């Protein structure tokens, strides 16, 4: 019987696997350029790790099972708890600040849809030991550099908020149940206005207050641009958000100033509807979104200053973000910017007759040892089919063995972009360039 991937899982044959590998290569290069060092985490953790962070409800979306010792364990649904656990174990020996990145698979048992699978790749950036918004500025600047490096320049922007401001807005409009209010606000762009009003009514708002809140969110639209954010903050201050809300606004002001100095003011907005659904965020939160109008977040993150303590670590300032591969793939493919696959081959060695295969294999190995990507035909095909294969592999050049035109100690080199041919000394063909 034929077998197919399980629902919510995908195969990635060539050239798709090569394109994804190229994205991961760019991820690593960008993170290292920004001073982050790589961390690897297990793919299976104790289920208690997620219960401590998220409560019992996490079981509904976790691949949960019992191992042979009858212990509850789970396929990792997100990387942040593992990162916090590892940091808690190493906190006394790690000089601060700590900047880590991870590229790991994760699994969630949820309904598959476009941009969401049950197995996915997640790229995380985390900073420990920086109490100020300098950490968030570094995370967002690195994320912007990463998105540019994978080809998403001009396609994205960042929405920023502070949960203290969101809580102050909730109190201002009469919310009695702040966690329920946050859940409603987190769904503002995903549900009809009438449903949103019903949810905030359950959080304690009156009908008039619900309408006023919706009006505030409508004024903000899909985000207040950096150049207009100060008047918006002043209007919130005029309405009165309490001491904690004021502290949140001051944090936002500092963060916007830092992002302006980092050259990001054109791609950041203030959005009072961003609160993020995870309970462990403590102040600043942010999301990336597509400028095309799709309201789904490309990725999210924020500050989680108390998470390390849950795993018996010290009190520690921490902030991070997580980028999933599926929404990023949709963004890049929609814009025609997805990589073609594996990088082009540098050299394809062509022979005019099968008896020259030993010489071709010898030359290919010489080229590979010199650091060039090289290959040759292994099926004894005609020269025309060898050149067709070289084109399919997007080879930069062909080295042709056995042509009478070549003089002693020389090989014919063909530029496969222009078709131009020339003789090159046999001793020079393995030099890059």
Describe it for me?
- With about 425 residues, the protein is of the alpha+beta class.
- It folds into two domains: about 15-335, Bira Bifunctional Protein, Domain 2 (BirA Bifunctional Protein, domain 2); about 345-430, 3-Layer(aba) Sandwich (Rossmann fold).
- The protein contains 14 helices and 17 strands.
- The chain has helices at about 15-35, 45-55, 80-90, 135-150, 165-170, 180-185, 195-200, 205-220, 230-240, 240-260, 305-310, 325-335, 355-370, 385-390; strands at about 35-40, 45, 65, 70-75, 100-105, 120-130, 155-160, 225, 270, 285-290, 295-305, 320-325, 345-350, 375, 395-400, 410-415, 420-425.
- The strands form three sheets. The chain has a nine-stranded mixed beta sheet with strand order 1-5-6-12-11-10-7-9-8, sandwiched between helices.
- A hairpin with a 5-residue loop joins strand 16 and strand 17 (about 420-425).
- Helix 1 (about 15-35) packs antiparallel against helix 4 (about 135-150) and helix 7 (about 195-200) crosses helix 8.
- The longest helix has 20 residues, at about 240-260.
* Cα separation of the termini: 51 Å
Mean pLDDT: 92
Number of domains: 2
Class by helix and strand content? alpha+beta
CATH architecture of the largest domain: 2-Layer Sandwich
- Helix content range: 25-40%
CATH topology of the largest domain: BirA Bifunctional Protein, domain 2
Count of helical stretches: 14
CATH class identity of the largest domain: Alpha Beta
Radius of gyration: 27 Å
Largest sheet: 9 strands, mixed
Dominant shape: elongated
Quick one: CATH superfamily of the largest domain? Bira Bifunctional Protein, Domain 2
Q: What order do the strands of the largest sheet run in, or round the barrel if closed?
A: 1-5-6-12-11-10-7-9-8
Unreliable stretches (pLDDT < 50, length at least 5) are: none
**Proportion of strand residues:** 15-25%
In total, the number of strands is 17
